[in-house]
Amino acid sequence: MKNECKIVQDLLPSYIENINSAETNEFIEEHFSNCEECRKKYRLMNENLRIESKVTKDEVKYMKKFNNRFKILLTVLMIIAIIFVIIISRKAIILNYLMEKTEKAQNMNNYYVNCLVYEKDKVLRMKGYKKEEASLSTLEMNYGKEYKKYTFYTNQKEKLYIEEGKGRVKVDSNEGTGIYTGIYSLKGDILTSMDYLRYLFFSHISTVNLEGKKCYLIKIDNRELFMDAETGMRVKFIDNNLNLTIDESYEFGTVSNELVQKPDLEAYSVKEE
User: Fold this and answer.
1) Could you say which residues of the chain have pLDDT below 50?
2) What is the 3-state secondary structure (H, E, C) of the chain?
3) What pTM does this model have?
């Protein structure tokens, strides 16, 4: 009998899974009718297998749900990565375009620059004429009722600085190098690879219309740069931290010799050596 119990108990897993032959199942069931111990083992094993089966099904269900969520997350991350690459690529194209556009202008030897600067209660107007080696720049400053004008002339041989204000004129041949009205280029801000990466990753670039011109608006460090989309030149600059606004315009190839002539000192009634 004990040998028969051992045989039956060895066959219980296949009996529960219903993979035995009909004769074997008949043998096991006949043994059950006479052996309480084997019946208990069968019930216990059957219960355990059902529990294990339920756990396995739950695990499979959980893994399917996890895999589905992981696929969704992966898809979302891929979409975000693609959008990020598109945005960065667009900014790189625009930045490179603007720098290349103004590179030619910076190498020109004939241009006119006009800048209006608004800083709090100050208004400054800068004009610059450049033709070959000669240049003539002026800076007019209004501080409420106070007015000053600075003129700086230079060529290959000499330079001249004139300061007007408060009823007097100062003429010098050594000062005035701070008066500069050259052409602004985005390269002036993007000097190193780190500067380029800062613009690439931390600036926001959009397309706007400014006084009938299509411009790229670059926002970075609480500053706003309006760049002419056709010429690459800066036409407006706003620094919100300094409460500073600059309006700029340029002309190329229009400066004549008369516009860059040395100022006639006899025109000034008061001189200070």
Assistant:
1) 270-273
2) CHHHHHHHHHHHHHHHCCCCCHHHHHHHHHHHCCCHHHHHHHHHHHHHHHHHHHHHHHHHHHHHHHHHHHHHHHHHHHHHHHHHHHHHHHHHHHHHHHHHHHHHHHCCCEEEEEEEEEECCEEEEEEEEEECCEEEEEEEEEECCEEEEEEEEECCCCEEEEEEECCEEEEECCCCCCCCCCCCCHHHCCCCHHHHHHHHHHCEEEEEEECCEEEEEEEECCEEEEEECCCCCEEEEEECCCCEEEEEEEEECCCCHHHHCCCCHHHCCCCEC
3) 0.69
